Amino acid sequence: MTNMSLMFDAIDEPAPGPKWAARWHRSWPSYEAWFITRGGDNGPSRSACHSAMKKYMPEIVAVYDRLVELAGGTDRAARFLSTWCPPRYLGGCSLATAADERDVRLVRNYDLSPELNEGLLLRTEWSGRAVMGMVEFLWGLSDGINDAGLSIALAYGGRSETGKGFGITTILRYILETCDTVEEALVVLDRIPSHMAYNLVLADASGNTASVELSPGGGVAIMDKAIATNHQSGPQPAERPGFTRSFERHTHLNDMQINPTHLNRQFLQKPLFQDRYREGFGTLFTAEYNPKTREIGLTLAGQRWNHSLDNFVEGQRVAHYSQSFDQTPIRLPQRQTAKVADWSMAAHIDWSTIDWHLVASDYASGRGCPIPSYVLDQSALQ
After folding, report:
1. CATH level 2 (architecture), domain 94-323
2. Residues 24-55: tens digit of each pLDDT
3. What is the pTM for the complete model shown?
C-alpha cells in the first residue's frame, strides 16, 4: 500500500487577524514558488489588481486590503491575493444538489492530490456576515455556506485556456459574502468574469438549486440539472475525460433518483469516490451542506466531522489515504528517476523546488504522478 495523509484544521476567526496570518506564513512559500514558476510576476500590476477588485467586488475591498497588510504588504502578495488574471490551475470534483418539500442538500467530492489542498475549514465574519467553507488560495473558497443558507461549490470545467477574469475561488468567497439566494448569486456570476472554465452548483435555504458553466473571460450557461463534473456542454472538448472519468461520473449523477438526505451516500462510493491518490486524483474530502440548518458534514477518509455555522467548534483531524500498488502504474516524467516516486519522501520535500509547470502540464494531459516526482533538485531527497 502507498500511504498519504493530510491534516485538516477547523478555524474560527471573525476578523482577519493572527490565525489567518499564521496560515499565510505557513502556506505562502509554496504558493509563492507556484506563482513565480507559473509566470505570475508577468501578470497584471498591483494597481491593476486593486482596480479590478474595486470594480467587481467593492464590498470586500477592505477585507482584501487587510489581508494584504497581514501578508506583509508586498506587491507579489497583493497580486496573488487579488487572483485577478492569475496563472492557470486545475482540479477535479463531482457536485450535486437535491431538494424536496422538506430538505435540501449540496454535496461535493474534492478530488486532487493530498499535497495540493490546504485542508482548512474556515469560519469568518469578514464583511459582517458569517461564512464557513473550505479554503483555497488562502482566502478563496472551493465550497461554502453563509448565514442565509446559501451554499456553493466548484468543479474544474475541463479546459485549461484562460481569459481576463478572477480566480474562481475568490468569486465564490464574494458570492457568500454578499448574496442570500441562488437568484442573487446568478446575477453576480453573470457580472464577474472567471479566468478559467468552471462548473458550479448552488442551493439556498428555500430549496432553489442551480448549476452553471462559466467560460474563460466571462459567460454563463445555466444547466438543466444541478449536477457537475469536469467537462462542459459546449463544443470545446474536455482535455482529459478518460483520466478524470468525468463523463462516467456525470452519467451516474444524472441517472440518480434520490432524496436529499441520501445524496451524500452516493458520493462515498464509486464511481463518484476516487482512490487514485498516487496519480493525483483521489477524493480528499466529501462535503455535505445543509442550507436549512447551515451545517456542513465533512467525510475525511471515511470519518465524519460535523460543523455548524451557528455553533462552530475549532479542531483538527488527520485523514490517511491509501491505494494498492496493484492498480495503474505510476508514469514518471522522463527527467525523473523511480526512487522519488515513493510518497514516504513527501515529508522531506522543499516545495520551492517543485516544477509546478510540469505538474500542471502532466495533470492536464492525464499523466498523473506523485508530487515527489517533480522535484527539480533531487539531491534534496537523498
Report:
1. 4-Layer Sandwich (3.60)
2. 999 999 999 999 999 999 999 999 999 999 99
3. 0.85
CB-based contacts of 316, cutoff 8 Å, min separation 6: 7, 8, 9, 10
Bridge-based pairing of strands 227-228 and 94-99 is antiparallel
- Residue ranges covered by each domain of the chain: 13-82, 94-323, 338-381
C-alpha 249/C-alpha 95 separation (Å) is: 10
C-alpha cell at position 189: 456570476
Return the C-alpha cell found at 74: 508586498
CA distance 228 to 206: 21
Which residues lie below 8 Å from residue 229, measured CB to CB, with a gap of 6+?
A: 93, 94, 95, 155, 199, 244, 246, 247, 249, 250, 253
- pLDDT range class, residue 355, cuts 50, 70, 90: low
CA gap 80, 28 in Å, rounded: 10
Any idea which of 119-133, 323-337, 368-382 has the lowest mean pLDDT? 323-337
